[in-house]
Write a structure and sequence with these properties.
Oligomer: heterodimer
Distance between the termini of chain A: 101 Å
Shape of chain A: elongated
Structural class of chain A: mainly alpha
Distance between the termini of chain B: 83 Å
Radius of gyration of chain B: 27 Å
Order of helices and strands of chain A: HHHHHEEHEEHHEEHHHHHHHH
Strand order of the largest sheet of chain A: 1-2
Strand content of chain B: under 5%
Number of helices of chain A: 16
Order of helices and strands of chain B: HHHHHHHHHHHHHHHHHHHEHEHHEHEE
Strand content of chain A: under 5%
Helix content of chain A: 40-55%
Structural class of chain B: mainly alpha
Helix content of chain B: 55-70%
Number of strands of chain A: 6
Largest sheet of chain A: 2 strands, antiparallel
């Protein structure tokens, strides 16, 4: 009897202990998983300062000092129509940088940057009735896009510009509903990112410039994105599909290669792309170079149907000169930032750059202003082939500028 | 030997060679006919379920095609968090298809649904001891026709639930229909655990089985607390055993390729794999089939409890839980119907708890009067209904696709899949489209992609791809204004159009918008390729 009672007690306590253990582990595990399984918007680790990716070539035979000086003078950010388009300012600051100053009444680099990143200055320029350019969201700060002349024209183009200009993430900005930082801009872009959204090139570029490694991140939708996947996305569509005749994609891919190369040379070495992905990008860009080489016109330009001149252009309503400047300028721009192995024969580059330079020099102020966004790419491309930015070139050749009011 | 003796000897030849339990009664023949008809009918149900073809196509995903390269069926699903819970089942279904084509899928479906109904019938009999209770199982395929119309995880899950219910019921003579786990043998424990392991590898509806076991624990707990005190809970051997059984089954779900990730994924939101396996959030219409089945089920239960002997708490609770599940997802009807039948059967109560099914079959004296019973030892057993049952089985075999072994013309593919799937279109795709990306109506997608290396923008499982991809797929299929640009964005090379449902897209393609070239057309289907794509 005593033994039976002991056994019963043992069984009872064994049961209690086993239940405490089982349910304790289950509840703890469940609580942990419940709190961590869905906090999946993990952003990649980012440097405060973006990488500096400089042009590697200085070829006077592409464009001479005199030609480039003439071209860049035409492209000073001086606009007859006021207020001008945000798009022009956005592209203008990308061409000239934040330190550029001019003595002909053109907007300085700092002025242009303030117009974009400080809502007070923005509202003074475009008026209080214009939709705000920067506003807070649940994810960060959003840039109003494609909603009129007081908004930017490309998704995350402003973020890409900021990254290329080298602005730190902790730089302060002022949105319409409060202050923030550039990190908030990038965070919004990353969290709201969808791999298959219409424009993704500038988000990819900006992230790559601030990235510390090839770490991936998960969007709000739960989609895992890394640079290999971005590269696949950039190469997926046929050319010339995509914004600006697909040339933004080529530029971003070229920059991926350069950034990856920089990372591999660091200590300890890191990478942006896997070896396989890098090879695929390289092969893809080489194929694009081949196509451009084969389809270049006698005069040196390309048009919106650059992969196949037999096909009609997709946007015949746009002025033919604008289309040619757009296509040619973008092509020269991504080649300028590509490794030398991806360059076409020199003759191809020279014909294109000479056509571009002579065409720009021959344009009047009205044409310049009308095509300003396309021309900034062209001007930047020509400067890059001289191993510097537009502002650096003007400083190098000693073009005198008065200090702007902002910089005093 | 006299003539009378010869007659007697002839009559007793079967009696001499067959055991007593082979002497079937007329109702056994009826039951046999019922299941044979069910099997034959099920074998001829068209294999048109998108879920079946999804399993075939995805089951082939990752397999090496004859071309020597592995396929990735849904390239745009890359990077999306998804729990591959169905991989084992999909490979099995794909293997069945590879082995015997659509015909074998039809037979497999027939066998699966018949086994499920046989298990439920057996369970109902064990609860009621009434032979006609087995015929009530016809309500299950009738009410669940939309959900059980193909070889799918839900069907296999329902079959597994039936087996679990059988294991919870007593086989031998007992006052109670349900087994006492405090006295259950090791074999039964192993069977339950083995069933749960198998179920967990087949479909995530194993959670329904665990819920049933949990209900059994709670039922016992409530009974003890109601009759005694809280403290008596831990001292009750039956309660303890049920708790151990439940926990052992929970732990046994780790014996799968995904291990503990199954339970981690149970906390995913919004793309919860368990919720999606069970049908997702899809409340039924009150006056739809599911709503009516639920209403009728409860009305009959109320009537049965008022006339019957008990309310049999466990099954009623399970039916209540299943009702809540149906309110959230119409797919839960596959759990509700059989559990409701169990609740009704238990409410009706057992006619004679002391007789098992086999004893009843063997007893040839149960229906005769006491006067006759004195001479029952010399009365010859009648095997007439045994022969009738055998005849039904034989007819069933001959009429089913299994009868093709005797020759005859096999059914065509169109007959096998029904009139809603594009057989000729698929044949064209298999022969002429290689390594392309296909856009098609989602209920056609997997059928078109099976047995080929073609990839799909979207298949029947719309949650596998990013939301934007699913939305764009829908826009392309509806032929919205910029559908062509969307198709180019995804590098789509082939569009398959259902002429009866996609008239806008059909018109656009015929007008040549986007430069799509029509490469195939029949009454049902039109296939267009991007110009420049090789056929």
């Amino acid at each position: 009897m005593k033994r039976v009672a002991t056994n019963r007690r043992l069984t009872h306590w064994l049961f209690v202990v086993s239940q405490v253990a089982f349910w304790g582990v289950s509840v703890c595990g469940g609580t942990y998983w419940a709190t961590t399984s869905n906090s999946n918007t993990i952003l990649p680790r980012l440097n405060n300062r973006p990488r500096l990716v400089r042009p590697e070539f200085d070829y006077p035979f592409v464009v001479s000092d005199e030609q480039l000086a003439e071209v860049l003078e035409k492209l000073h950010p001086k606009f007859a129509q006021l207020p001008t388009k945000v798009n022009f300012v956005d592209h203008g600051v990308r061409l000239w940088g934040p330190l550029a100053t001019f003595d002909d009444g053109a907007l300085s680099g700092q002025q242009m940057l303030n117009m974009l990143l400080n809502h007070g200055v923005f509202a003074k320029t475009w008026g209080p009735t214009a939709p705000p350019l920067l506003q807070h969201t649940d994810y960060g700060i959003e840039v109003t896009t494609q909603q009129g002349s007081a908004t930017v024209s490309h998704v995350d183009h402003l973020m890409g510009t900021i990254a290329e200009l080298g602005l730190p993430l902790e730089s302060r900005i002022v949105a319409s509903d409060g202050p923030g930082t550039i990190r908030d801009l990038l965070q919004h872009g990353l969290l709201s990112f969808q791999l298959n959204q219409h424009e993704y090139e500038w988000t990819a570029l900006a992230t790559a410039l601030y990235a510390t490694s090839d770490a991936d991140w998960r969007t709000l939708e739960g989609e895992l994105v890394d640079f290999n996947r971005l590269a696949e996305r950039l190469m997926r569509q046929e050319q010339p599909l995509g914004v600006c005749y697909g040339q933004h994609r080529l530029y971003t891919l070229a920059m991926f290669l350069r950034i990856d190369e920089q990372m591999r040379g660091e200590s300890p070495p890191r990478r942006l792309l896997s070896a396989e992905s890098r090879h695929e990008v390289f092969v893809y860009l080489r194929e694009m170079t081949r196509k451009l080489y084969e389809t270049q016109s006698v005069d040196g330009f390309w048009d919106g149907n650059w992969p196949n001149p037999q096909q009609a252009v997709r946007d015949p309503e746009i002025d033919v000169l604008s289309r040619r400047i757009l296509a040619t300028g973008h092509a020269l721009e991504w080649w300028a930032m590509s490794p030398a192995e991806l360059h076409p024969p020199r003759e191809t580059i020279v014909r294109a750059s000479q056509w571009l330079a002579s065409t720009i020099v021959g344009m009047d102020a009205v044409q310049i202003e009308k095509n300003y966004t396309f021309l900034t790419h062209a001007g930047r491309a020509l400067a890059l082939w001289r191993g510097c930015s537009a502002a650096e070139f003007e400083k190098r050749i000693g073009v005198a500028h008065a200090p702007s009011e902002e910089n005093k | 030997m006299t003539y009378a003796t010869q007659q007697t000897a002839a009559r007793r030849q079967l009696e001499a060679s067959l055991p007593a339990w082979c002497a079937l009664k007329w109702y056994h023949a009826v039951i046999c006919a019922y299941f044979t008809l069910l099997f034959v009918f099920a074998c001829y149900v068209p294999i048109a379920s998108p879920e079946t073809w999804r399993d075939v196509a995805i089951g082939q995903d990752g397999a090496e095609m004859p071309a020597g390269k592995t396929i990735q069926r849904l390239p745009y699903a890359d990077g999306i968090r998804y729990f591959e819970a169905d991989a084992t089942r999909q490979r099995i279904v794909a293997w069945i298809h590879d082995l015997g084509g659509t015909q074998l899928l039809a037979v497999a479906f027939g066998i699966s649904i018949t086994c499920s109904m046989v298990c439920w019938a057996h369970a109902l009999y064990r609860v009621t001891q009434k032979w006609y209770a087995v015929l009530a199982t016809i309500t299950i395929p009738l009410a669940c026709y939309n959900r059980l119309s193909g070889l799918s995880g839900l069907l296999l899950g329902q079959c597994a639930l039936a087996c679990l219910v059988l294991l919870l019921l007593e086989r031998k003579k007992s006052r109670q229909a349900r087994i006492k786990w405090a006295r259950a043998g090791l074999g039964r424990w192993l069977l339950v655990v083995g069933l749960i392991v198998t179920w967990a590898n087949i479909h995530l509806s194993v959670i329904v089985g665990l819920a049933l076991l949990l209900f059994a624990v709670v039922e016992r707990g409530v009974t003890i607390v109601h009759k005694q005190t809280w403290r008596s809970l831990t001292r009750d051997a039956e309660f303890r055993r049920r708790v151990y059984l439940f926990e052992l089954c929970v732990v046994s779900t780790l014996a799968t390729p995904f291990g503990i990730e199954l339970w981690r994924a149970a906390f995913w939101w919004p793309t919860n794999p368990i919720v999606q396996s069970l049908g997702g959030w899809a409340p039924p219409l009150m006056f739809g089939l599911s709503g009516l089945a639920v209403s009728l089920g409860w009305l009959v239960w109320i009537y049965a409890t008022q006339r019957g002997k008990s309310r049999a708490t466990l099954w009623s609770w399970c039916a209540g839980g299943a009702t809540i599940a149906v309110a959230a997802s119409s797919s839960a009807i596959v759990w509700f119907m059989p559990l409701m039948l169990m609740a009704i059967a238990a409410a009706v109560g057992r006619k004679d708890y002391s007789v098992s099914l086999w004893d009843k079959i063997a007893s040839d004296c149960s229906d005769i009067s006491p006067v006759q019973s004195a001479s029952c030892g010399t009365r010859p057993m009648s095997f007439a209904f045994t022969l009738v049952a055998g005849l039904f089985l034989w007819l069933g075999f001959c009429l089913s696709p299994l009868g093709d072994v005797f020759g005859g013309r096999p059914r065509t593919e169109q007959q096998l899949v029904g009139k809603h799937l594009p057989v000729a279109g698929r044949q064209f795709v298999l022969q002429n489209v290689t390594d392309g990306l296909i856009v098609a109506p989602i209920d056609w997608s997997d059928y078109l992609a099976a047995n080929s290396s073609n990839r799909l923008l979207l298949n029947y499982d719309v949650t596998r791809v990013p939301r934007l991809v699913a939305q764009d797929h829908d826009r392309i299929c509806r032929g919205v204004e910029n559908w062509h640009d969307l198709a180019m964005k995804y590098a789509v090379s082939n569009i398959v159009i259902d002429k009866s449902r996609q008239s806008t897209l059909l018109r656009q393609v015929r007008r040549g918008i986007g430069g799509w070239q029509i490469v195939f057309e029949d009454e049902m289907t039109l296939i267009a390729q991007r110009k420049g794509e090789s056929s």
